[in-house]
Amino acid sequence: MPTFAVILPAAGSSSRFGDPRRKKPFIELKGRPVWVRAVELFLSRDDVVQTLIVLPSDEIEFFREKFRANLAFMNVEIVAGGASRAESVQNALARVRADVEFVAVHDAARPLIVKAWIADVFDAAIAHGAAIPAVPISSTVKRVSRDKRIEETVPREGLWAAQTPQVARRDWLLEAFAKRGDFQATDEAQLLERTGRSVAIVEGSPLNLKITTREDFRMAEALVDALPREKTLGALHPFADERFL
Ligand code: CTP
Ligand code: MG
After folding, report:
1. Torsions phi, psi of 212, nearest 5?
2. What is the pLDDT of residue 245?
3. What is the pTM (predicted TM-score) of this model?
4. Do residues 42 and 102 make contact, with C-beta atoms less than 8 angstroms apart?
5. pLDDT exceeding 70 applies to what percent of the chain?
6. CATH number for 157
């Protein structure tokens, strides 16, 4: 069985979230912190052998204190982040065990993940070396100037919006990050593309949203109970949170 490490970048500043007192991964979403929802379904997989969360270095103590109860039940390593997402992921990648074959990077700000979507992208990574979930863009896309005038319509043919978890062979990711220089990629696939690796696309779900703004958070609250459920065992446990079954 191929083995996986999971990296959960949570070291951003939540600047677009617009609440200077609270960062989005640490807020409660319907009774459970966003970061806990983002990571817990990875922890329940037998092939996930290492999990790392990346935090702002000046908030590690706060995090250990605030989430002591959650952490007691989870085998999660804490890593100090960097100024950009790429640096944060790179710091964690350096701590991934050498015997691990694949690395999955999943935004701490994507709490609406379900087991089946994780399984699909893990399977595709095993088959192709690297895979990410993405959704075809359905809107008409405009390039807009700073003074908010349309410059052009970008043909949406072949345009997909990338999501996480982004999964790749550990050796491919290490190579891609080693050649990064100070290029600020916004996802791992972009670095793999630059090193000539082919990344497979798995059609994802628009429900796997990333919380960027307060509106996204409200949307996530509305959607959390509307996620696809695993039917078979649901009937046996009518009161359980069926995402765990
Ligand atoms: N992230 C990180 N380290 C950084 C920047 C981002 O680990 N230096 C993480 C964020 O915590 C988040 C994920 O990468 O889970 C996706 O980034 P984004 O949605 O942009 O979050 P922030 O950078 O925190 O938000 P903003 O860009 O609005 O400041
Ligand atoms: Mg950001």
Report:
1. -115, -50
2. 45
3. 0.93
4. no
5. 94
6. 3.90.550.10
